[in-house]
Amino acid sequence: MDRIDTPALVLLPLRPEHADEMAVVLSDPGLHTFIGGVPLTAQELRARYERLAAGPPGWRNWVLWSREEERLVGYVQATIEGGTAEIAWVIGTPWQGRGLATAAARALVAHLADEGIGTVIAHIHPDHAASAAVAGSAGLRPTDRWHDGEVRWELKIPYA
Questions:
Q1: Closest by Cα among 104, 94, 84, 87 to 11
Q2: What is the pLDDT of residues 89-134, one digit of tens each?
Q3: Phi, psi of 137 (to 5 degrees)
Q4: Are residues 105 and 142 in contact, defined by beta-carbon separation less than 8 angstroms?
Q5: DSSP H or E stretch at residue 144
Q6: Residues paired with 147 in a beta bridge
Q7: pTM of the entire predicted model
Q8: Which strand ranges, in their side-by-side order, compose the sheet holding 9-13?
Q9: Residue 30: exposed, middle, or buried by beta-carbon count in 10 A (0-12, 13-18, 19+)?
Q10: What separation in angstroms does the CA of 149 have from each of 35, 42, 59, 87, 146?
Q11: Burial status of residue 13 (CB atoms within 10 A of its CB: 0-12, 13-18, 19 or more)
């Protein structure tokens, strides 16, 4: 998996060693309103990251390194099956509203297009306006399809 560079962020392939810092990034219970679950301990997160790192090649996960703050601030992920990638992004509460999710999602979509992915999808809760704005900024558009109470957003990449 490749490192992805943007002016504001570096998307680093997820490693179990990121668990301690990411446990702090993801520690706000309010962050889980739309993504579900509860904050995990560093140990729980490390076990999860070990599973993700050992998972199939279609499981792609990156942590987000803020160049300005010189620390991790969130993550993005893509689950690739055939020519389709389902993506998601999470920014820790203290770093929200700064355009970091948009920068990360755009970089991820561009990277996937470069890899020949033809369809990118995301599932977004209908009340999560910030995440909908990120998806729109990354080129995805809402569809009339739903999955587990969330709207399916989609981007067809014509040249893939």
A1: 104
A2: 999 999 999 999 999 999 999 999 999 999 999 999 999 999 999 9
A3: -65, -30
A4: no
A5: strand 141-147
A6: 150
A7: 0.94
A8: 4-5, 9-13, 59-66, 71-81, 84-91, 119-124, 150-156, 141-147
A9: exposed
A10: 12, 29, 23, 17, 6
A11: middle
Question: In the chain, where does DSSP find H-type helix?
Answer: 19-25, 32-35, 42-54, 100-114, 129-137
> Tell me, what DSSP letter sits at residue 159?
T
Q: Quick count: other Cβ atoms within 10 Å of Cβ 121?
A: 19
Q: Is 82 helix (H, G, I), strand (E, B) or coil?
A: coil
Each residue of 23-42: pLDDT tens digit?
Answer: 999 999 999 888 888 999 99
**Residues of 129-152 as b/e, b for ≥16 C-beta within 10 angstroms?**
eebbebbeebbbeeeeeeeeebbb
Q: What is the mean pLDDT of the chain?
A: 95
- Which of 108, 118, 112, 56 has its CA nearest to residue 84? 118
Q: In terms of DSSP bridges, do strands 150-156 and 119-124 run parallel, antiparallel, or are they unpaired? A: antiparallel
- Name residues whose C-beta falls within 8 Å of residue 17's C-beta, 6 or more positions apart in sequence: none
For 112, the 3-state DSSP assignment is helix
